[in-house]
Amino acid sequence: MQNIKGAIFDMDGTLLDSMPVWKRLTQNYLKQFDLHITDQDFAACEGFSQPQVADYFLARHPELPLTREQMLDGMDELITSRYETIAKPKPGVIEFLERMRRKGVKMAIATLTARRHAEKALLDRGMMQYFSFMLTIEDVGVPKYEPDIYLEVARRLQVAPEDCLVFEDVPAGILAGKRAGMTVLAVEDDFSRELSGEKKALADGYICDYSELL
Prior knowledge:
alpha/beta; 6-stranded parallel sheet; two-stranded antiparallel ribbon
């Protein structure tokens, strides 16, 4: 932590306790079409943006009476009404962000979540003030299991990858951060608890909550 000049945060499951919200919203939307989402489906969609999730289910279930645009609009309506109000900050995260700001560490966000939802959720919780900017998968155009988004954040922060610390909650994001040449801390999250062993093996460190870093 002493030599870190830049910090890059995933959002869902890392800054916000929101991963179960995404699963519940997707399930609630698709169950109206008698489609049940399995754990294997969610594992397959790890690192996907919302449009990529829609493409996955439409390809897997051609019987769905939806166009891509209809599915995206339907999911977006649920997210707007529920996600932005339900998701809560992870324990100790605001205090940690304040400490990092006092130390002069440059901070930014790299997320799968659409900008319109991510920014509103963080603004409503007074958290966006800590970050120089937010970069989404929509901005880079590749899945988050690739290192591109982390490298682009580092470039915009004007910090070398080896001087960046990444905070991630899922193996795909952790591995991508490592491929970008960065130090990665895995954050515990109930949604990925069964993957904690894999997360610990991939990351440089593991925290249960941010108070451990205060």
